Amino acid sequence: MTETTLIAVKPEIAARAQVDEAGYKAMYQAAAQDPDAFWAKEAQRIAWMQAPKIIKNVDFGGTSGKVSIKWFEDGVLNASVSCLDRHLATRGDQVAIIWEGDDPSSDAKVTYKELHARVCQLANAMRGLGVQKGDRVCIYLPMIVEAAVAMLACARIGAVHSIVFGGFSPDSLASRIQDSDCVLLITADEGRRGGRKVPLKANADEALKTCPSIRHVIVARNTGGAVEMMPERDHWWSDACDTQPETAEPEKMNAEDPLFILYTSGSTGKPKGVLHTTGGYMVWASFTHQNVFDYRDGEIYWCTADVGWVTGHTYIVYGPLANGATTLMFEGVPNYPTVSRFWEVIDKHQVAIFYTAPTAIRALMREGEAPVKKTSRKSLRILGSVGEPINPEAWLWYYRNVGDERCPIVDTWWQTETGGILISPLPGAIAQKPGSATLPLPGVKPALVDNDGAVLEGAAEGNLVLLDSWPGQMRTVYGDHERFVQTYFSTFKGTYFTGDGARRDADGYYWITGRVDDVINVAGHRMGTAEVESALVAHPKVAEAAVVGMPHDIKGQGIYAYVTLKTGEEPSEALRKELVAWVRKEIGPIASPDAIQWAPGLPKTRSGKIMRRILRKIAANETEALGDTSTLADPGVVQDLVENRVR
Length: 647
Ligand code: 6R9
Description:
Strand order of the largest sheet: 12-11-8-6-7-14-15-24
Bound molecules: ligand 6R9
Helix content: 25-40%
Mean pLDDT: 96
């Protein structure tokens, strides 16, 4: 498979597509030439209480050094109205959410009317508990309908939700609650995943020991498992909501009022609270969901992400519901009870659009074709990929076996920070190349720069930046605007730096090569190597740790940790296991190291900087090409590390 392999848009797909090739080019040009006119028109896709007159007002700080991003700043709206109220007259009885449980015999359907009522009841309950516009509410829920209800109820009363993925530990939950001083926590007794239970309420109780800002906890009964309820503080969801009125006045929100915070990992320090606002985010969610998936009325749409990640925010809840879609929410995992589960769910619910991650595709690919082929999948029309680069082999397997060479694949590149998809083929417009995210969406201006910030033209490889703003862009890091400016706008002045590297081929197609910073991507989960390192050094026997990504067949990247023990401590298999368990407890299971190498010393420069370049090469078993080691304080440590590499 070379990069000249071009999979043309099939004529039958182009003929029916909402946007064809000429249409894409016209849209791209229109958005570039007159962004105000283009986005004023696109803004009409959502419901406004007061339509915006001022469209774009952005400064990337090129000359002033001050970064300020505003879209639709005089508009007034409520996100929950776009997702619910305005559909009631036309599609009140249409299913909004299909819920498919971890156990294949459990499912549920919720219409727009029912969803609206449940959201209003929770909104009223939260107001009754004193939650006000602008307050932060933490959501720590499994993939149950209540998660979507909680998000929309926050939006309804103008509270800012901050979802913490259910796989995070009590410590990780606590630090996120503390960073944004959340006043309310919404959780469940337990979650379910792959036949196992996740003790969410018990984790929350542990976390809340250090979270004085939380005044109340609302607990959804999910598994019925026993939990402790603290009088005054803890309320069962049903007690709080069932007697509430089924309507609730939506709060009037300015377009630039915050909608949510979502914590994500960077190269340094603790996870940052990425802040998204209301108007621009909603326009971007709706615009991209419709165009990238060529979404049509009446179709069943399934994104397999968890609402704990940005993909779940934009492409399970806000985008699809804004567009009046039927969105499927899946509680389970791809291989439970069998490795046919995804394909069985597609047949069961007649899914037309299926959006998943390369790590899931690679894991299922390993199981062979039979588990796929025994299902029909005739309902499928569009396939999507997100979270990490998809290798051409996995792309082709997905295309041939899942989509029977009938369904275009949209490989969508974006980030928590970007709010929605930025680079992706439009399925009826852009010929695909396996492994390439292809071309930017209208309104998106990517560029490649070298390490000095010089813009590279034509076919080139470099750092991926964005030259101008799009409506869905994050506005700040919660509580730390300076960190926002430093992280994204100081490396290459006047541009937004993505942290990714990319190659652009002769056709102008983008091939994302992965992170160029100290962020690793493990099974599509973003992790800062610094976070894992600080968890390791918090162990009483560890003196020092360095963590890098290593190639992993299924997860894309695995976590490889070099650990130096304190004097007098001896490495052992028991200690290795203890450290893995320690990191799971400190951060969560997604951060479990795949390999721990005992390192008597780490390769450092004379100024004491760890040379990660060398550690990455050793972890990847590329020890022939370690490069220049002459600047090391003690070149001898490298030999020891190479000899004792973990296989
Ligand atoms: C949406 C999401 C963002 C990072 C991003 C990049 C990687 C995501 C990708 C992709 C290649 C794709 N990434 N999609 N790389 N091709 N289609 O995943 O957000 O969790 O913030 O991760 O994921 O490295 O910078 P987030």
